[in-house]
Amino acid sequence: MMRLCIPLLLLMVVLNQQSALSQTTPSKNTTKKTNKVEETSKKSDNTDEDFFDEVDEKSAPKKSTTKTTKKTPVEVDPFEEEETPKKSTTTKKSTPATKTSEVDPSDEEPKKETPTKKKVKKKKKKTPPKPVETTPTEVKSDKPDADLDGLLDGYLDLKSVSNVDVSAASRTSSSSSKSAPATILTITSEEIEIRGYQSLIDVLMDLPDFQVQTNNDTESLHGIVTRGLKGQDKFVILLDGIRISSPTNEIMPILENYPVHIAKTIEVIYGPASALYGADAFAGIINITTKKGFDVQSKTQSTIQYGMFNKTNATFLYADNLGERINLTVGGQYMYDQQPDLSTYFPTDFAGISSLRTGSFRTANSAFGAPEVTPKTPVSPEYKIPILAYNAFANLQIEDFQFSFFHNYAQTPTATSYTPDNAIYNEDAFFGQSITAISGTYTKNFEKAVSISAFTLSRYDLNPNSNYRNVFVGLDPGYKYAFGAMMKAEQLIGYTVNDDLSLTSGVTYESFYSVPKGTDLEFPVNTKNAISGLIKGSVIPQFPSGYPAEFFQLAYSNLGGFLQAQYLPDPTIAFTVGTRVDHNSRFGTTINPRAGVVWRPSDKFTLKTLYGAAFLAPAPRYAFEYFGSVTYDSVAQRFRGGNWRLPNPDLGPMKNHTFELGISTYLTPELSLSINGYYSLYSGLFNIVLDSGNTNLYYDTTARGYRFGALEINRVTVPQNAGTQTNYGASVIVQWLKTFGKLRLNTRLSLSYVDGTTDLDENPLTPQEQIGFLSPLMFKGLIDLTWGDFSLSTRVIYMGDQRGNQVTKADPTVRQTIPGYLLVNMFAKYALSEKVDFHITAQNLLDARYRVVNFDIQPENVGSPDAYIYEFPNGTPQNPLRIMGGVSFSF
Predict the structure, then answer these.
(1) pLDDT by residue (tens digit) across 425-446?
(2) In principle, which of 197, 310, 688, 820 could form an S-S bond with 202, CB 3.0–4.6 Å?
């Protein structure tokens, strides 16, 4: 069906052009298209066993027929057959063309058909990856961007969907996702538009091996689990190769603060990537590549959405070619979400919400006889915990120079995951975090090499008004402050030695400055003066000046270098080997190797065997954060601490060694199958241990007590590199793309399984525990449908039983669990005109009442004397059905 649709579609285009130009002489390009249609029609009679021979011929490299506007390093796929280049038919004085990302396959020169029916297979030639000049080729569509009938014009076959060029896997060049030495999944701008993605969290929810848990983290709102590893700090987010996650690796919310409406592609690399990217590329890389002027048909695009619970979302994008080799892209986004009042949907879980009305809270400490707490700071009786996020982006390309600016902000409530008796659900209890990044890049292509020089300035800010209002600070605001900055200089070089060997190398210098998040403060920090503050609870009548908090100020650096080689002894196989060495002035030297073998005996089958190492740097947040409570001893006339978590400046990095095996094959031209398995070994886990008998940083053996400066403390815990963990799992992905006339279907089904064990004390005599905070089994399915001006995307997410952190009473190696859930999301869009379309989004379409795990989940203890708990014991309640409507403009 696919082979019949392609020539028919091309034939219709040619006939329309001939009808419009019936009074004029046909151009050379029209003649070429006609010949191509005739040739494609002949090829449609081939048998299924040769279904990708035609694709191979289309994908073979050839010289462009359009004027070069930008030199970009591109890696030629070493597994593609080489075709004899054709001379360009465009002169240097021709008018610059409007550019898009897709190349019209009908612009190829006609090929001669052999008189016999027997297929003659061309001899393959080894083509090593090397930097070459590439040219965006003009493609003019009969319909504008708003017309959904032309939205999937690039989906001529499944290969064009699943075999997308990526750059994050090699850094100095681009290569196909099938041949790159990494497990990669790409999301294109067409898929983003059809599925109605408005934030990066929307994208991650639909990805295999990713589990998104909402409302279960007081600082980042979401808990993201990647291959069994929990935390946004386990992967790095890039924008055109520039890091836009926190420079000092604070855990940031992932919402509309990270843009997807400006994305040409989103490259998701699974597994360790420190061999190329250094610290924090522990579980993967997410690289958002932005649209340029030659990637869009409408210079300006904007979307406005509004829906239930007063959620508002607006986006803006402007992309244009200002000159022959000048391109400008500007984008922005704003989102405000008042959020539903979950006490009306989960009345049992929110029975304590009456505390907001009375102003008196019966906290979990009441189990020990503590009285109800009445906060000194006024409490609003209204349940209101809104979310706010925005981002701004600008990119200017002038010939080989590129300058970019990025800024984002996210404000999330700090009451989520706590029961309403133990936290105040008011909008003044929030965490606000922002990132600003400015970068400049110079790319120079030579005959056999490419050089990329980059300089980046990046900073992280925690809004000084950020605070908790929970049981640990007496339900009065406990303010926090943090800051982090990075200056980074990097030089990358890609070099082609010969037809069999290519090299990639780089050197990086990073300078950091950080003020890690410390204890709860009585008042917000005044950033206009020297950083200072008072410990929460220390301002009392007997001591009105309070007890001063300590702010650690860290200045440190990192010097790193890497070398990677790719060797092609045969056209069907490629070997990749490399390593990176980093020396950090805080925690010393780390070495992270990488190796891979990619075997492609045909264009229908790929086998990848991979090994990689990575390290997660001990972020200042984790190594130096401290907090605790103080009480005033009126007899001794001094303060004393209770239970405190204190810094460990000697904390080292956590390490990862992962082995992967991946198989992908095309079962038919419309159907593909991928199987990816992995086995990961983690060491040096960041765990909280008792200071006494472990680090002994604060334990005074003479006084037999803990001391932090002049403050005597009852009990101290610290972070320490203690324990190992083993994760293993696999995912099966089936993708089916089919065209029935005007109806187009793109379907992806994935089944993922992950499990493992953790050994916190590394004692062979004690049993290992199951890993927690996840659903071992999850299924995700999506169906994208387009019919003329209408599109519909349906996504289904099924999570099996969810493991928490607490172990069962019957078996201390088994985690307590709560039920899984089924979630259905939908997005529909209709093009009203060439410039305007309407759309509707439905989240949790079935209005399921489901929960996700939190740190303190203990379903076995509900109703028992052991139910000493601050968070929802049966899991954190989730949002009900939400519907939004919107309109998009392009001009």
Answers:
(1) 999 999 999 999 999 999 999 9
(2) 197
